[in-house]
Amino acid sequence: MKIFQKVPQGYTSRQGKYTTTQGVPLFNHKALISMLSATSEAAMSLPIKRRSSPTEELEGEKERSKMKLRSFMKPGKEQQEVVVLGRPDSEISVRMDSNVLDCIICFEPLKPPIFQCEVGHVVCSVCLSKIGERCHMCCKTTRYRRCFALEQFIDAIKVQCSNAKYGCNEFIAYYQKEKHEQECIHVPCFCPENGCSFEGSTRSLLDHLVTMHEWSPTNIKYNKALRISMARDRRFTLFVGEDLSMFLLGNILTDIGNALTMVCIGPHDSELSYSSKISVVDRVACEKGRFVFQMDPLVESSSLSGGIKLGKFFLLVPPELVDGSTGELTINVRIDKVNP
Asked: Which residue in 164, 178, 252, 287 could disulfide with 259, CB within 3.0 to 4.6 Å?
């Protein structure tokens, strides 16, 4: 395998290596070659199709396509599909150890800018700021330079989002995978029912709750109060907004009453924000103004991965507000859209 690099003006070539007039290597290919050596020749196939004309060849040079590589990780690591920018006339499959894509000091994914010592040992920019001019491998003072060829190689490696089975079709740079998945709108939501292992998109979760657990969602209009009656021991009440956003009113029994909390079902805070107002009134003495009230200026989003939990804002309802004849709570709920 040959690796070529354009030589900037003012550099000369000595013994097959590009050097400055002072003899300092411009780029040592050992780092990149060692990374490529992690691939398995037995798993590599490179079918090449000849272009029919120079015109087609020129067009092919201008337009880069994606070549898919399937990267099979070490035992214990999940399989990932990797996409590398390349020519439209070939496709390769390789076995790659993902550890070669990580900084050997902090073990975080390598990302530009990447630096190398005079020998060729690479380090990320964060670690370079800590170790100064001393190489962690050579154990001696050295000069670090940008490793542009390795940066191009790292940028070319794309991996599929782990939420592909939930609808995400994104391929992102390997070093951006973790950040993307923290913000991915296709992160699965979980069923809040005890003992249920369902996980899926918010839309599939709604279907699951209705069909499998026979929940009856309550439609709610924004900016308008809705009065409902809820059994004191009922754990969940599901509301569906006009834009099909889902809100879960959780009811947690405590020694001093009922704790009510509202969450928006979703993997993370979306572009849309909501506020909520919840009040519980004494059905018998409501004309006397006996009630408890709570307003949440920003309803938190939750994937329900840990079940329903009390957030920063919740409403504590004393037992005296439970209807003695029916064992129900009379609750007023209002959800408003918050302008961004």
From this structure: 252
Q: Are 197 and 177 in contact (CB under 8 A)?
A: no
CATH of 189-338, one of 2.60.210, 3.40.50, 2.160.20, 1.10.3860: 2.60.210
Single out the residue of 82, 99, 94 nearest to residue 158, CA to CA. Answer: 82
Tell me the pLDDT band of 260, cut-offs 50, 70 and 90.
Answer: very high
Closest CA relative to residue 276, chosen from 205, 199, 331, 223: 223
Measured CA angle at 123 (ends 82, 158), to 5 deg: 10
Asked whether the beta carbons of 207 and 200 are under 8 A apart, the reply is no
pTM above 0.85, yes or no: no
Helix (H) or strand (E) segment spanning residue 172: strand 171-173
> To which H or E segment does residue 248 belong?
strand 246-254
Q: Are 329 and 230 in contact (CB under 8 A)?
A: yes
CA distance 62 to 87: 10
- For residue range 165-223, list pLDDT tens digits in order: 888 888 888 899 988 988 888 888 999 999 999 998 888 899 999 999 999 999 999 99
**Which residue spans within 255-340 are E strands per DSSP?**
257-265, 273-281, 291-296, 301-302, 315-317, 328-338
DSSP state of 124: E
Topology of domain 12-183 in CATH is Herpes Virus-1 (3.30.40)
In this chain, the answer to whether the domains covering 12-183 and 189-338 adopt an identical fold is no
CA 129 to chain CA centroid, nearest Å: 28
